[in-house]
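Here is the promised in-class demo. Please do not try to memorize the tokens; focus on the logic of going from shape to residues.
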């Protein structure tokens, strides 16, 4: 009788261990949720009506870029690295921008501590020279107008070597992450100014494009095959 009871207990224990192992495997296969660029990424982020799953977007970086063309042949392109927006990009573009932000995590934390900001808006800004000779630029002169205010960069993190020289030869590109006050709202109309030249991008159209793609992403995600449980 005791032998039978012992055998039954061992069988139950083995069943429990198998169930635990199976549960661990399922949990390990669930990809981690990446927090928004420059934000903490708490569970509340997923309750944001603009939050969408990654991997279903089709937009190009130019589709969400803010562009300025000053008279000296300088071309400026700025992309907001808001997680709710870059998730609308094609998977490869999303991954490259997300990895760019992740590679600067330590420097971004230092910027936050230095400026004592509750939040901040990160933009990937590239400066390109079209004309021959040397073209100078000042990233501090890249100003975003939004919600009735002008926002200047609070800090910057160079991406390309030589960015700190603030000069370009023809066809050269220099890039950096420019950090602005988190009160910049990319879901509201905005524009940029560079060396007294306004941006050529109609941000209202960008917002419409973003909203349209956001709806399509939700539809694609809803119809995608579900992983086996």
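The designed amino acids, position by position:
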């Amino acid at each position: 009788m005791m032998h039978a009871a012992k055998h039954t207990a061992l069988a139950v224990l083995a069943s429990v261990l198998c169930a635990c192992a199976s549960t661990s495997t399922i949990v390990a296969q669930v990809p981690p949720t990446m927090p928004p660029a420059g934000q903490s990424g708490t569970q509340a982020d997923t309750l944001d009506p603009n939050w969408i799953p990654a991997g279903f977007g089709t937009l190009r970086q130019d589709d969400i870029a803010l562009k300025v063309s000053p008279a000296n042949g300088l071309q400026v392109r700025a992309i907001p690295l808001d997680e709710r927006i870059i998730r609308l990009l094609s998977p490869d573009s999303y991954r490259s921008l997300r990895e760019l932000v992740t590679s600067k995590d330590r420097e971004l934390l230092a910027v936050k501590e230095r400026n004592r900001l509750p939040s901040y808006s990160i933009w990937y800004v590239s400066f390109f020279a079209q004309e021959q000779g040397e073209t100078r630029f000042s990233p501090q002169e890249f100003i975003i107008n939004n919600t009735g205010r002008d926002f200047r960069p609070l800090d910057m993190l160079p991406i390309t070597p030589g960015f700190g020289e603030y000069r370009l030869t023809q066809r050269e590109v220099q890039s950096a992450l420019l950090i602005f006050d988190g009160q910049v709202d990319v879901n509201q109309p905005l524009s940029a100014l560079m060396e007294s030249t306004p941006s050529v991008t109609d941000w209202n159209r960008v917002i419409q494009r973003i909203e349209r793609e956001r709806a399509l992403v939700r539809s694609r995600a809803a119809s995608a095959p579900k992983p086996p449980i």
